[in-house]
């Protein structure tokens, strides 16, 4: 009997669902509007609908994984739980002092973000550990008990425990946690030596505090979600996607909600890497454009770029994530005029409700979607396979009334401007993760997905100097499908701030053994027994030149170093520094900052069936209806409108063309050529005059 897997990606506008059959390779796809007032219920409705559409018994669902934006939205909107802090005496203001960073050099009045812990919920206790880990002032139990009483009296629901230099010696934090558990069992607790055992006090404090503030929020959400899944008859315990590209149990997420900030977009990156492996393209840039935002990520030699710190709501939260760069540009991004009368697009969005004016749900402000409808790039009749009616007259009215009249321009002219501005913004995002990281985007293929990605991909690629665009078979559901292709992954780190010299090998190897212990504990919590055949470990060092304040992360071969391995790591550091910055300093000493290990539990891959072959004697464009579509190179031209399901493997066509399907629309510009791959992917070559061929 077949087993079915379900992936759910909750976006700002739509919730995408994919159901895969482990036995027969069948796939089912579904989209429902996101219920912003109650996301969990919207997800449950979608699960019930896709199981009904696929005629699947809920008891046959063996794996269910969720990509969620809940933690991200909670931080951005300040919707966290009332949080308290227990810290070393004299360090309660670390959260307020933050860093002396100025996001705008010439603005002296930029306020710092308000941390989750109010001033009156920061309890200081007399204790002190030195930078080397020695106890200077012992922790007394009565000090912690006093702090507990103080915070409980102020209505605190969740507690962060952050002591000075706890990354070197966690004994005081461990004892404080034990006392909180004994005397305040209802409180949620987040401990810095477990969440982020790394140096840099502010980053460690704010990461732990943000994690604590999200624990009750995520726990409540997951509890309702799990109960709803059980009520639907699904017996398999659900999993949640993390920002690092790995799916884990809900219990792990309850302890580390900060690991889900890029939960949904991570699915798209995982799916893109799998797509690249299948079609032999190793260098890729993901282009995930949805209704609210656009996410881009660079995949070099099949491996997605990673980061260890992300700015979230103004807070430098340190957690291992895919290096996904996000901007506020999506199909629902609003067009508006600034005080000087200049046209702007985004970052504010029309969201799912009321949505773009052309949706006919009451929206009156123009969006990128409305511009695409007015310019013929999106169907003026219906979307979602006919399930959503479109209203082009409302799109024209919104653009005219809100911006065009004030500018003294026509609605179509302004719609062109909206598209050009949105494309320029998204091209800038592509350059951030490529050019600014020392990578040439011309060496990469752009993989377009999300509900709006294929609409804009060819224009963005051309502006970035890229020649090849790949549009997967189900681009609007790519992130949800990627959730089902994810392994389980845990990331662990700790600080060892020592010179990279042979005499420090005992300290470094002791740290690596500690990481191995933590990794083994995590594997046990994920239900992995003695069989480690599917488990892989990636060991890394953070290195920097003595005197520097930033590190580079280098791979090492194993979880134990000898003199030769350390020397190889140092040589690799010099080479990487030269690649990124154009120089190295081999006479300068190198310092180890952090040790890292990533543990990956491989999961079975669902197969994607090949599609039927195209008959070379037929023209895929012959007999196709046409409509008036605007292109940057030609203006308005009558353009054939094709259905994606009619394009079979091996078919070739020249632009211009519009390709429609349930979950997205692909714009193929004039002067380009397109070939359909064996899996149904569209390989668009933007090189003028080139024959249709796959990107390499």
Automatic annotation (TrEMBL):
Residues 508-677 form the Acetophenone carboxylase-like C-terminal domain. Residues 666-696 are annotated as: Disordered. It comes from the Bacteria. Residues 666-675 have a biased composition (Polar residues). Residues 6-181 form the Hydantoinase/oxoprolinase N-terminal domain. Residues 204-487 form the Hydantoinase A/oxoprolinase domain. Signal peptide: none annotated. Pfam families: Hydant_A_C (PF19278), Hydant_A_N (PF05378), Hydantoinase_A (PF01968). This is Hydantoinase/oxoprolinase family protein.
């Amino acid at each position: 009997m077949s087993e079915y897997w379900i992936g759910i990606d909750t976006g700002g506008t739509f919730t995408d669902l994919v159901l895969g059959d482990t036995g027969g390779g069948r796939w089912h796809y579904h989209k429902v509007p996101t219920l912003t007032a109650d996301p969990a219920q919207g997800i449950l409705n979608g699960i019930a609908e896709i199981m009904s559409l696929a005629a699947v018994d809920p008891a046959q669902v063996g794996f269910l994984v969720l990509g969620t934006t809940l933690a991200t939205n909670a931080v951005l909107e300040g919707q966290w739980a009332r949080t308290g802090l227990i810290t070393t005496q004299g360090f309660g203001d670390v959260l307020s002092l933050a860093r002396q960073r100025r996001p705008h050099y010439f603005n002296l009045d930029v306020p710092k973000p308000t941390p989750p812990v109010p001033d009156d919920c920061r309890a200081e206790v007399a204790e002190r550990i030195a930078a080397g880990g020695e106890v200077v002032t012992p922790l007394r139990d009565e000090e912690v008990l006093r702090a507990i009483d103080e915070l409980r009296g102020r209505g605190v629901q969740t507690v962060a425990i952050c002591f000075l230099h706890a990354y070197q010696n966690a004994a005081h934090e461990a004892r404080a946690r034990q006392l909180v558990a004994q005397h305040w069992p209802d409180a949620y607790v987040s401990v810095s030596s477990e969440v982020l055992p790394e140096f840099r006090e502010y980053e460690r404090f704010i990461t732990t505090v943000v994690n604590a503030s999200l624990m009750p929020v995520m726990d409540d959400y997951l509890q309702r979600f799990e109960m709803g899944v059980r009520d639907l008859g699904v017996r398999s315990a659900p999993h949640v996607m993390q920002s690092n590209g790995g799916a884990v149990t809900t219990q792990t997420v309850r302890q580390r909600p900060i690991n889900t900030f890029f939960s949904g977009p991570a699915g798209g990156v995982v799916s893109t890497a799998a797509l690249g492996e299948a079609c032999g393209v190793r260098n890729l840039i993901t282009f995930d454009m949805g209704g609210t935002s656009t996410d881009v990520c660079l995949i070099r030699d099949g491996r997605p770029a990673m980061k260890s710190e992300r700015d979230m709501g103004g807070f430098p939260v340190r957690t291992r994530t895919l290096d996904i760069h996000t901007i506020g540009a999506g199909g629902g991004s609003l067009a508006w005029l600034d005080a000087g009368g200049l046209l702007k697009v985004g970052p504010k969005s029309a969201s799912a409700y009321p949505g773009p004016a052309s949706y006919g749900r009451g929206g009156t402000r123009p969006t990128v979607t409305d511009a695409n409808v007015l310019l013929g790039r999106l169907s003026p009749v219906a979307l979602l396979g006919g399930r959503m009616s479109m209203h082009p007259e409302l799109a024209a009215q919104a653009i005219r009334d809100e911006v065009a009249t004030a500018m003294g321009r026509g609605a179509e002219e302004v719609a062109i401007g909206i598209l050009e501005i949105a494309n320029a913004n998204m091209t800038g995002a592509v350059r951030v993760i490529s050019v600014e990281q020392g990578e040439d985007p011309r060496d990469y293929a752009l993989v377009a997905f999300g509900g709006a990605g294929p609409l804009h991909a060819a224009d963005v690629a051309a502006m970035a100097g890229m020649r090849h665009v790949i549009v997967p078979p189900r681009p609007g559901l790519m992130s949800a499908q990627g959730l089902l292709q994810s392994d389980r992954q845990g990331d662990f780190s700790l600080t060892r701030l020592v010179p990279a010299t042979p005499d420090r090998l005992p300290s470094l190897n002791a740290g690596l053994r500690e990481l191995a212990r933590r990794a083994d504990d995590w594997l046990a919590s994920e239900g992995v027994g003695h069989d480690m055949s599917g488990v892989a470990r990636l060991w890394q060092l953070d290195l920097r030149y003595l005197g520097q304040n930033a590190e580079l992360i280098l791979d090492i071969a194993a979880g134990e170093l000898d003199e030769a391995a350390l020397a190889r790591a140092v040589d690799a550091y010099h080479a990487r520094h030269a690649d990124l910055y154009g120089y190295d300093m081999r006479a300068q000493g190198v310092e180890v900052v952090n040790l890292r290990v990533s543990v990956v539990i491989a999961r079975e891959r669902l197969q994607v069936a090949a599609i039927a072959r195209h008959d070379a004697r037929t023209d895929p464009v012959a007999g196709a209806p046409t409509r008036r579509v605007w292109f940057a190179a030609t203006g308005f031209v009558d353009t054939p409108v094709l259905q994606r399901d009619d394009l079979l493997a091996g078919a070739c066509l020249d632009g211009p063309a519009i390709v429609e399907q349930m979950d997205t629309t692909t714009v193929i510009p004039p002067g380009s050529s397109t070939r359909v791959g064996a899996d149904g992917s569209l390989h668009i070559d933007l090189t003028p005059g080139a024959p249709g061929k796959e990107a390499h």
